[in-house]
Amino acid sequence: MDSIWINAPAKINLGLDVIRRREDGYHEVKMIMQSIRLFDRLTLAKSKTPGIRLSTNLNFLPVNEDNLVYKSAKLLMDEFGITDGLDIQLDKRIPVAAGMAGGSTDAASCMIAMNRLFNLQLSTKQLMERGVTLGADIPYCITKGTALSEGIGEILSPLPKAPDCYVLIAKPAFHVSTKFVYAELALNESTVHPDIDSMIRCIRKKDLHGLCSVMANILETVTIPKHPEIAQLKESMLEYGALGSLMSGSGPTVFGIFDDVKKARAAKEKCRQLPFRCFVYITDLYR
Ligand code: ATP
Q: Is the pTM of this model over 0.90?
């Protein structure tokens, strides 16, 4: 095998809580991760010319060690003493800096693809151990599906697949700094925390309506006051029949959950007509 391609799915957070700020500055989280059918595509090809060459369809993305794909490829090339060269084409469709783990899923998929291409014979667990050294969300992006993520994101418990539904994604054209959002989050005795355990119970019961009624993301308390567009997107989705609507990660992506694709389409049109630019996309859950 001289080349391989792989799809890297985006994630949304069906729930996101921050339990506490640790002394080392990291945040202890409790999140429900869900893969969706919105993919970046990576194509890896062996080359006679040594080194890693990364190219991408987005000219503002780094193609050196600052790109998580390059980093993850280099990690495995160094560890396994791979002397072949590697050409990687990264076709991005997942919005960047959106709260959808775009970089992490690319890195996870790059490691999975390299494992196959160079027959490294690493188990999923061994890939996850290497992935976590590059980013806390990478182990989840290796396993995908529906999962509870705890610790700093690296402690994973698989959950049954969330109930089938349509997902409307709306990503406004501005970026949000994850670092800023976490730094600004107020955590004290009066903080109201999302009820992640209730969400898990709803997932186990396949209760989509129940799940949508308890979905919550504590980071909305920081991002929405800074960016009222997020509240407008949520309201528009709910007005057009979303069972629930939430910001994903630290934002600014908003998603709506629908049990009827016609309602999702109408909500998509509504989001398009709002007075700010937005990437909108209808999809469903992955695995
Ligand atoms: P998360 O949900 O994990 O917080 P995100 O959606 O907020 O992720 P990314 O899309 O992963 O954020 O990108 C954040 C930053 O990482 C970007 O500013 C970008 O320059 C850098 N980056 C490095 N590698 C990648 C990649 N493969 N795809 C996208 N961004 C990347």
A: yes
